[in-house]
Write a structure and sequence with these properties.
Helix content: 40-55%
Oligomer: single chain
Shape: elongated
Mean pLDDT: 82
Radius of gyration: 55 Å
Number of strands: 18
Strand order of the largest sheet: 7-6-11-10-9-8
């Protein structure tokens, strides 16, 4: 909590710190690019001497090897061999002389060619890949020397496969050029020395082809796309392998007068940023570039920026600490006063809440007791009302069911009188037997209706699921026949017994089957599947229809009282709610879902009756109900 003084002034320790932090970050963001560029420039200028040393080393090697071919060409034995190229003794002497010369001069190769470019002798005559017998007339250094000048050229050796620089000079006999002497030195030693440093070195020719580099994967990469003419020239002179002339992805931006910022894509590290300085060797036509990583410059810029941010934060902390000390006493007094007032208010409010809660709790207890009594009474009445509603729905069909046997009884009775008058007693006796069968049928229907309509007993007893199912199907037989529907029953091998009440469980099944019949009434497939299967602790009765199923929004309210999707006059929405509570009273569970292949599935889960207990029989249950 801040003091009134600090709030009025608008300066709090937190605001001061935020203001200083924002200012420090803004200054760091503005200064960092300039600092990084400054240190990059300094790094490039410091390494100019290193670049000069690299260039001087390459130029020195060129100057050292350049006069050698002319000096070697003055040997008389070379002219003798050119006059007599088939003399084996002369060939042997020149070969050995060249081998020793190459060893002393630390040259890669020394060799002699005639004016057609055919190599007559070479220092590599002992090697498997010897220059002897090979023709190099396509090389520019041969053409330059054959014209009387000093030939020079850098290329990848077509015989040895080694990169090297070639110097060549003519061999003259009586002022007539009769042959060419060439000296080659390799550049691997330079690259090996460059690899020991974090800095990178690359050397490119006038076509911007990198032929020397501290990274081997940069060899023969181009810094720009080559034209058709340049590619044709490389192919004619066989200078480099064409399949390896691929562009090296790079970007360049200026940094000072002599330096540049270069970004190169490396195979192992991705894009890397360098400060680049370059020098040109005019005699060889080489551009030597020294690449200094910018990571150190970035680290230095980050360090300076961090120091600047920390310095500003320290200043801000000092100011904030001063404000904090200045307002600390006032804040402490304000906190104590507010805490005291708040405690008093809470005590008063809590006391009032407790008194109100106690009074409300007493009222709620009394109301809940009265509501529980009304609920039990209403539930029993709803159960009975649901059964009577089901009987009402079946009344039309049952009327037909009774009228048909009555019509048959009258017909059989009339026929029996006629048979008796004619003395045909056997046929009259047969008609009387049929009248007795029709009377038994009507009595069976009446018994099922009477048991279904009576109020059930409250006790829970073991009941036979097979008997309950058969009674429920008997009640619905008339509607099944009128709709042309079929109930496929799948019962276990042994008698399934569960805890419940015969009449109430029969009512549940009648409700579920009636709902299933309503669902398939307008469908082509009017099959209803009724199965009993065991569970871990009881039995599960499943009723599945092939109707349209239950909508998702209806599933959540399916067992609510008075909720129905049927048209007015076809139901009160009590059947499933009553069934749900009946099953719940049995200690079971009623659930609904949609079948993956279509249609609704309702499942009644009941507790298994203990082995040895006798199931409640329909007649016994009816008798107990009547006794009540």
């Amino acid at each position: 909590m801040t003091s009134p003084l600090s709030t009025r002034a608008g300066l709090t320790p937190g605001r001061v710190l935020i203001l200083v932090a924002v200012l420090a970050l803004v200054l760091a963001a503005v200064a960092f690019p300039r600092l990084e560029r400054h240190y990059q420039l300094q790094a490039g200028l410091r390494e100019q001497d290193t670049l000069r040393l690299v260039v001087e080393g390459l130029a020195g090697a060129l100057r050292r090897y350049e006069p050698l071919p002319a000096l070697i060409a003055e040997r008389p034995i070379l002219r003798d061999l050119l006059r007599n190229p088939d003399d084996p003794e002369l060939v042997r002497q020149v070969n050995e002389s060249f081998r020793q010369t190459a060893f002393q001069l630390k040259a890669s190769d020394v060799y002699l060619m005639d004016t057609s470019g055919l190599t007559l002798a070479a220092s590599s005559y002992r090697k498997e890949l010897s220059f002897v017998g090979r023709n190099f007339s396509y090389r520019p250094y041969f053409t330059q020397a054959l014209e009387g000048g000093i030939g020079r050229y850098f290329a990848l050796g077509t015989t040895s496969g080694e990169r090297g620089y070639f110097f060549a000079a003519p061999v003259e006999d009586a002022r007539r050029i009769v042959g060419i002497v060439a000296v080659k030195f390799t550049v691997d030693a330079f690259e090996e020395a460059w690899r020991g440093s974090a800095k990178r070195v690359l050397v490119r020719d006038l076509k911007d082809i990198v032929f020397m580099a501290s990274r081997q994967d940069w060899h023969f990469r181009t810094l720009r796309p080559l034209s058709e003419t340049e590619l044709a020239e490389v192919e004619v002179f066989r200078q480099y392998p064409l399949d390896r002339l691929r562009p090296l992805p790079s970007t360049t931006e200026p940094l000072g007068d002599e330096l540049k910022l270069v970004s190169l894509e490396e195979e192992d590290t991705g894009w890397t940023r360098y400060v680049a300085g370059s020098l040109y060797i005019p005699d060889a036509g080489w551009n030597v570039t020294l690449l200094i990583p910018t990571a150190q410059a970035r680290v230095q810029a980050v360090a300076v920026s961090s120091i600047m941010v920390l310095a500003l934060l320290l200043i801000g902390l000092g100011v904030a600490f001063s404000l904090q000390r200045r307002t600390q006493l006032l804040e402490r007094i304000e906190v104590q006063r507010a805490a005291r007032e708040q405690l008093e208010e809470r005590v008063i409010a809590r006391t009032a809440d407790l008194n109100h809660a106690n009074a409300k709790l007493v009222t709620e207890v009394e109301e809940r007791k009265a509501a529980e009594i009304r609920l039990r009474r209403t539930q029993a009445e709803l159960v009975q009302a649901g059964k009577l509603a089901a009987l009402g729905q079946m009344s039309a069909a049952l009327s037909h069911e009774f009228n048909q046997p009555l019509a048959a009884v009258k017909s059989y009775a009339d026929n029996a009188i006629t048979f008796l008058e004619r003395g045909r007693s056997a046929e009259a006796r047969e008609n009387v037997g049929r009248i007795s069968q029709m009377a038994d049928r009507m009595a069976e229907i009446s018994r099922h209706l009477r048991n279904f309509a009576r109020r059930p007993q409250g006790r829970l007893l073991p009941v036979s699921l097979d008997a309950v199912i058969q009674d429920a199907l008997a009640l619905l037989q008339t509607r099944l026949s009128s709709l042309g529907a079929r109930v496929e029953v799948d019962l276990p091998d042994k008698d399934a017994r569960a805890i419940g009440g015969h009449v109430r469980l029969q009512q549940v099944l009648v409700n579920l089957l009636n709902n299933a019949l309503d669902a398939v009434e307008d469908r082509d497939d009017r099959r209803i599947l009724l199965s009993v299967s065991p569970t871990a602790q009881g039995w599960r009765i499943t009723v599945r229809d092939h109707g349209p199923g239950i909508a998702e929004d209806v599933l959540a309210r399916l067992f609510d009282p008075f909720f129905t999707t049927k048209s007015p006059g076809k139901g009160l929405g009590l059947g499933l709610s009553i069934s749900y509570n009946i099953v719940k009273d049995f200690g079971g569970h009623l659930a609904a879902r949609n079948h993956p292949e279509g249609g609704a599935v309702l499942q009644v889960t009941l507790q298994r009756a203990e082995d040895g207990a006798e199931p409640a029989q329909p007649d016994a249950a009816a008798q107990e109900t009547a006794a009540e």
